[in-house]
Amino acid sequence: MTATPVNGISRRDVIGTAVAVAATGWSAGSGTAWAAPRSPGGTEDVYERMARAAALRWRRMPGDWKDGPFLGNGLLGVQVYRGATANSVKVMVSHSQVQDQRPQWRAPYGFSRLPIGHFDLTLAGEVTGVDWTLDIWDAELHGTVTTTRGSVRFSMLVHNARTALLISTRPSAGEETAAWSFTWLPAISPREKDKPADYTGNPDPRTGSAGTTHYVEQPLIAGGGWTTAWRERRVGSGRLLAAHIVYGFPEDLSRTTERAVAEVSRTLSADPDELVRAHRAWWHRFYRRSLVSVPDKRIQNFYWIQLYKAACATRAGGPSMSEWGPWYPETGGSWSAVWWNLNVQIATWLIQGSAHPELDSVTSTFKNFEKYLPLSVPSEYQDGDTYALAHPSDWMLRPGAKTVGIPGTSTKTDNNGNLIWAMHNVWLSYRHTMDVSIVRDVLYPILVKAVNFYDHFLYEGSDGKLHLPLTRSPEWADATDCTYDLSLIRWGCATLLDCLRILRTDHPRAGRWREILQRLVDYPRDATGVNIGAGKPLTESHRHFSHMLWLFPLHELSWDRPSDRDTIRTTFDHWVEDRSLWAGYSYAAASSMASLVERPEDALDFLTFFTDGNLIKNAWMTANTMYVEGGNLAIESPLTAAQSVLDMAVQSHGGVVRAFPSVSRRWPDLSVQGLRTQGAFLVDANRSGGRTRWVRVRSEAGAPLVLQHGVDGAIDVRDERGRRLRYRETAPGRIQIPLGRNETAVVLPRGTDPDLSARDVPALGDAKPWGLPD
């Protein structure tokens, strides 16, 4: 193995002539039909047909991350777009774990995500056209680049299990000299805001080779670093490029390089057809977990793309989801860490209802890295029994040189509620699986200490109520008795008492939690509804729904209770009245809230406004369903909009499973399969002609089932063998069914025998593919 100082050669290290794969497969003569991936004989099932229909397409060269194809496996991320010259295509590579390790600065600098570099395909002629398809069913990008000299066919994937980038190309006559090269990028935080005066970038990398494998090893000032290694091998009449990125800290960089080189050899020694089959098999199982079909196929395809994006971005046991997922924006890279004052929480809601616990990196992150939570607590309160979570952090919950600050003092920040809000996501993971170990091992021990942090600052006012000193409502203003914090304190105490019941235990502070619930001051309110805080009404547009967490997602106030409706209606109407400063996630949250308050037309309007790509102040959703805010990449808003679709189809808050609770009259048909709800129920349901035709619920845990079924008229309730089941009507259209573990109930109009299989509902109008299809 040899290494060459980078100042001795060009950054660009040519690795050979790009050759290709036959049109029939990954490699010439292979049996895997990558270039024609549809099932032979048209045997696709409905899941495959819908996922393939959501494919993104390009007939114009994308310019950058805003409109280019993207691939990933929760660690390695790839984006494809125009190169620096007219005769090149860029493949940007990035990795969720690649970051700095200097805790003397705040996370966006000290633990900043760092750029790696890009592979470039340099062509003989100038690019004149592209024809690309990102097939989300197979999680593969394939197509053709046409030039003034010929064309190059290619296929590309980020292997799900091996975290390898695999690229195969096939040039026509005239493009035989097309060649790959790699360009490294400086390992410097891209963030400029509040940059420390003493910040310095990391040193330049070293390039080298081990036999025919090339590598770039990037050292960090703090020790360790990462290595990008790649090699091509001939397969039949073509070549296959494999690249790996291996990160190591604090291990010696030479060891990291050895591992990267070994990974490349291991990947290239495998049968490429077997690699592709294993990769596709994971993704096919992934998509068959659940199904959502709506008549607006543009939105349907958007929803399926968000499932793909979520699985590209994060996995249970892996890094928590940053603002960028595993990708790195070549421009617009201000959010270089993990933001916890909203972004992670809302980006990961989708995984619950869509039945994808294998993507639950939030729960695993807190399980694995709880030990770092005291770092966010001000030193005066690090008593061993207090936790907090500053934002941003790195993916291991380390904030660098920042704490959440002390309420009531000049050090306060808008971070005090981050940890409890994150624990609500963990609670949702428990409720959707009924896995008691989540409560025992993660939620309960952390939530006890998170509530204890707030308890240090609660004080008794002259009214005998418990009050909170000055804190900050995220993205709005400082306030005493801040509604954002009060709602999280209430939810935290109530949930701790629930945890005691679930775990059949007690805690010496249980009495205090009950006292807080009884004595905590009411939310400040006026004629416009609930305020930001005491003496702080909402007086202008507010993109964050921080003062409405009690409605969504905490469900403390409920539309089911008539006594809550006026407060909900007044506050919601006032918030949505002025949208001039809204962000994309504001529209997604407003859609979900509208679904909660039985306004399906408003819910659809909010959703379509955002997904149609309208400019929102200086933000918009892009052609590839990424999201731009202030010129920066952020992925949480589109993912949250997918949750808005789920909230139209199925809800399960307040102990009630609701089928089709908020379906617009513009959507006469809707079909779902396998949607997961609180109580660990799996829901299938079908709606056609504006009426619910049947609902099927399977219980995984034997939890009590109260079902708002939405079926008109008299009903039958049967098990999966057609036998009648006992049930009790608790309200019009709402029944209680005693289901045991792994038992199923089907609710349908009396005397009917419908087809209960999954279906793709008829389209209303045409649906332009996502991407740049024309």
From TrEMBL:
Which keywords, in A-to-Z order, does the entry hold? Hydrolase
Pfam families, per database record = Glyco_hydro_95_C (PF21307), Glyco_hydro_95_cat (PF22124)
Enumerate the spans annotated as Glycosyl hydrolase family 95 catalytic domain.
312-629
What residue spans carry the region label Disordered?
Answer: 193-213, 751-774
Question: A Gene Ontology MF term for this entry?
Answer: hydrolase activity
Q: Which Gene3D superfamilies match?
A: 1.50.10.10, Golgi alpha-mannosidase II
InterPro entries documented for this protein: 6-hairpin_glycosidase_sf, 6hp_glycosidase-like_sf, AFCA-like_C, GH95_cat, Glyco_hydro_b, TAT_signal
Name-wise, this protein is Glycosyl hydrolase family 95 catalytic domain-containing protein
Q: Source taxonomy lineage?
A: Bacteria, Bacillati, Actinomycetota, Actinomycetes, Kitasatosporales
